[in-house]
Fold these 2 entries.
Entry 1:
Amino acid sequence: MNDLVLMRKNLFRKPVRTVLLVVSIFMAFLIFSVMLSFNHAITNFNALPNRMVTLNKINFTESLPIAYYDRLRQMEGVKAATHMNWFGGYYQDPVKGFLPVFAVDPETYFAVYGEDLPVTPEVRDKFFSERTAMLAAKPVADKWKWRVGQRIPMNSNIFSQANGSHTWEFTLVGVFDTPQGSSQTGSVLIHFDYFNETITFGRDRIGWIPFLTTSATVNDKVAQAIDQRFMNSQDETSTQDEAAFNKSFAAQLGNIALVVTLVVGAAFGAILLIVGTTMALAVRERTREVGVLKTLGFSSGRVLAMVLGESLLLSIFGSGLGMLGAAGLLELVKNAMAGGGPPMSFAPIVLWWGIPIAIALGLVTGLAPALGAYRLKIVDALGRR
Amino acid sequence: MASLINQIGAVTALNIRTVPQRAAMSIASVVAVALTITVLLFFLALSNGLSKTVTGSGSDDVAIVLRDGSVAELNSVVRKDQLNILATGSGVVQKDGVPVASGELLVIVDGIKRATGTEANMPFRGIGPEGLSLRKGIKITQGRMFTPGTNEIVVGAGLLREFAGFEFAKTINLRGSSWQVVGVFEAPGTVFDSELWADIAVTQSLFNRPNSFQTMRIQLNSASTMPAYKEWAKKDPRLQQLQVLSEREYYAAQASQSTRQFTFIAWGLGIMMAIGALAGALNTMYSSVAARSSEIATLRILGFSGYAAFFGTLVEALALSALGAIAGLLLAFVFFEGRTTSTLGSGFTQLVFKFQLSPAIVVSALVTALLIGLLGGLLPGIRAARQRPQLELAAQ
């Protein structure tokens, strides 16, 4: 019988108590993992270091003249540029069917976002050549049961056609499976030219201009040159790299990092006390046994290691289950959202923080009882009742 | 019966008096409940404050007209000719021969959030001459109202508290022209408190949206004429593709959209934490029963019934969780109740509001805590009642 067996036997000698502790730890790590993953999802997209975006300086919801795109793409340091418009799309129901539909210039869009759009060359060419073509992220197509080749009536909550209708028909030419954390998660893409010709107002205006610089080192220089170029015009611009834009957008929701820290702190604070006091009790109950072990020749150090090992085992077991449960839960959430909302998935950063926290929790909760057992004199242990 | 109540009283008193002997675990249990309740209250107060502010913005006797299918003002479009027709409807209040109605345009401009220094979406609303009289309870607290036809802005006091860039008497450059902040208004507890207002015609021309309106607000004689007005607008062929709502209905829909997620988060996190706290409470009570096993056995031999042992344990658990609930409420009152915060509202612009607890929220938090206590005391209580006194004492 080695020490590990002894630790396990000790841990499960009162199975109800141990199961309850595992439940506590499980819940705290579930909260921790889900909240950290959420925070990660809204602040970290797969941003390319040399992908930037030019927006209207007033706010990104204000448009820019299309002429800006032509001027911008010829500027020094710009490798490839494209433009996007927010269509205000919804399918069937204005609220439940809300979809991020973008009117894009297909060829240049693939030049800038190609790695986020894994489709076969045939699908890509079909999307390029058909004016009314539409590409959709796979979860969106799955959610609404769209088939490739189907004509999809898409509504806009902003734009109208000349006949007063808010509905456009597009042909779904393909679906794309976005890489994890991609900025294209859940997107639906349509042709800018078709959009621009059929809308009744806002013609020849574009929403924003994503572009690639020749290298991330020239980002600042290019951004300055662009904003300088359009200064004192009707539409002044603001140029940022993609990651900075995503970050400032997430900050609009509120100080989420702080809320996550406080909630996770509350959850961990609670289990620290619960597990710590229960471990102390569990070891105190075994005072006589500790005395017996020491009488049999177990060194004080070995007894200390066994108590610490027991609390570590408990903490690692509970936290492992919690993180595993979170991975499953996040997968369910991801499927339920069908590509809408932030790209939720179990973030590797959870393990990065979770494992050290689990070890620390095990050590901290076991420390006081372990030291108690370490210092315990055989006489006191066997004499005490 | 009376003797049973006496017995329960005696055992409960004994249990409560001996709690200090089990101080560490009892405190752990109380703190776990307190933190659970605080987290629950945090998100419920957030949700409630947001909801109160948005729903508090709408009147029953003001009609708001949007494009059909537009869920928010921002993406709605109403044409100028439709505005003129809408003002001729039945029940529209006239002032000096002019209908009290306001065609409005909401654009978004960037402000700087004071707390973080990051850019945030500010609603900039162009309003018609009657725009101010359509909204009740608006007070200019500093400076004056903008003069129609000029590049002047008035700013909501709530916006000013949370965001920088629009201070009183400041000149702001937007689209190559300068705007002067000439006044500060207060619209307490409404969305308007976090808005910027300017003249509609100036807003249209400076933002390059000639003759473009998003919404029309119309003052009706009374709330009771609303259905007739809606019916009239529905029938007019020139007003097709528009939807008429009372302002209250509009803001209620907006509120339910933005608060649903916070309520969901509140209960999602709250239930997860409550299960963790319940596991802690069960452990505490099981060890309380174990620690008192010889006392319980002695009492049973003296003639106390199993019920007394059961209720004594249950009441102890309830007392601990009630203490946790009170501590949680105190934390809520100290740390966030009444604090101002802001988030991206359903109109895609920042909305300033206060954390607001309500009696219903406090009750649901108390119920949650007592449920933890009840479940946490039930099984250990049963174990206490089922204890075999002779065996317990013999084992000692």
Entry 2:
Amino acid sequence: MATVRVQREDFDPGAEAEALARGRTDVGAVVSFVGHCRDEDGWLAALELEHYPGMAEEEIARAAAEAEARWPLLGATIIHRHGRIAPGERIVLVAVAAEHRGAAFAAAEMLMDYLKTRAPFWKRAIRRDGSVEGWIESKKDDDRSAARWSAAG
Amino acid sequence: MKALYFAWVRERVGAAEEELDPPPTVKTVGDLVAWLRERGEGYAHAFDKPAAVRAALDRVHARSDASIKGVKEVAFFPPMTGG
């Protein structure tokens, strides 16, 4: 049921969120989250996102299936970009529709936690002088955040 | 089987993908890592701390004790940093 897209191009978050409810009268809540690239106090010129084509889409779809098994969702759209992304640009969208807001908020949060820790993407930071800062390290906070969902389940 | 490497694992190994033909004694992901480490400096560097490298078998996350029997595609990569 979920729409999953892994793409180089930007997306329109408003249109994606709106599409989940268009023409429907059963959707009472649409929650959307958009992750942007930060400039890290000015030194960062861009992020380069590498991904594992095929597995990235499949892993996100598995996370969406888990969310759908857990909450009564009426739709979900997950878009993750790859390639070079500059500060201010969008990286990721999670939009979830449900009858009530509780399920929509919770599912969106779980999906973001899973994207951070399980979807095969890797960020590399490029400095303003053009040099490569290096691969961004995974955060323990993200692991703890993701672990909440399996511990509770 | 086909092996894929991503991010700094790819950089250290010096290849994005290659064909592997491990001996029959190599039964698990962990065995494969130990076998790969013997293939040269780049591999030894990439798998210097085996716990820091994640693996997927046929595009599904796998632990080091997972069997590689019948697997067509194995991938090694650092912990994910998407989102």
